[in-house]
Amino acid sequence: MNSPFDWSRMRAFLATAETGSLSAAARAIGLTQPTLGRQIAALEDELGLMLFERVGRGLHLTAAGQELLVHARDMGAAADRLALAAMGQSQSVEGTVRITASDMFSALWLPAVVSRCRVLAPRLHIDVIAVNDIRDLMRREADIAVRHVRPDQPDLVARLIREAQAMLYAAKSYLDARVRPQSLADLAQHDFISFGNVDRMVSYLNTIDIPVTAQNFRVNSENGLVAWAMARAGLGLCPMDDAVAAMAPEMECVLPQMKPITFPVWLTTHREIHTSPRIRLVFDVLDEILSKDLPPNATPSRT
Fold first, then answer.
1. Helices (H) and strands (E) in the chain, counts
2. What is the rounded average pLDDT of the residues 160-177?
3. What are the φ/ψ torsions at residue 32 (nearest 5 degrees)?
4. Topology of the domain covering 92-159+265-290
5. Is the pTM of this model over 0.70?
6. What is the C-alpha to C-alpha distance for residues 303 and 286, in angstroms, rounded to an integer?
C-alpha cells in the first residue's frame, strides 16, 4: 500500500462482509451499489488480495477476507467511538430521549447506558420507561425501544444487537429439596414461575418439548424482576437470560445439556435518527453496551 489509507474502502468492505451482499451493504452505508462495488475492487487491487467470492446471489469471504475482517471491525468500532465522542461534545446534543425496555433490561443494562451518555453529553436527559409491554414508537410514547421482535413499520429502523441465550434456572435450595431433573420429561414434576401470560408461556415451552401445563405454574408476576426474585427464593424453575443468571450464584442451571432458548435483541427507533444528534448518540451507546453478552461488571457463574 503506497498510497494514503482510504477508510471509506475499508468501511465498504466491512459493510459488505457483515451483510453478505453489495446491495444490502450499499443501503446500510448510504451508497449506490456501483460506487460500493468500485470501492471493494479498489481495496482488493490496493492490497493485492481477493477478499470475496460470489456464491449464488451472495458474497462469501475468502480466507484473506476473514483475516482482514477482524482488523476492520476493530477499526470500525474505533471510528464509531470517535464519532460518538465528537457528537457528545456538540452543544446541540441536549434535550430528552425516552428509552423503553423491559424491567430486567432497564435495571441491569440501562444504568451503564445513562452513565455513558452523561459523560458524552452532560446536557442530555434520559427518561427510562421500564415496562414489559411494547410501547408504540409511532405515537411517540418513546424514542428508542429495546425489543425482542423486529418491527415492520416502514417509518422505523431497527438494528439487531445480539442473539441472547436463556436456560432454565432454579435455586440450589429448591433443587436440593427436590429430585434434580435428569430429562425433559422430569420437568413435568416441578414447579415453575412465570412472568407475563401463563398460557402463552406454557404454549412456548411445549413447542420446545418441555411437558408443562398451567398447573406447573404456582407463581406468576407481570414483573420480570419480581418473578426472578421468586425463583431465587426457591419457589420454582424459571427461564432466564444467561446474562442475568450469571449474577446469581445461588442459582443453578437445570438440564445444562438442554438446547438453549435463543431470542434476538433489537434496537428500534424512528428514521429521524439520521437527523437527530441526541437520538443517534443514545442509540449508539445502547448498541455499544447492550451488544455485550453480560451486563457491565457481571461475572459468569453458571454451574
1. 11, 11
2. 92
3. -80, 155
4. D-Maltodextrin-Binding Protein; domain 2 (3.40.190)
5. no
6. 29
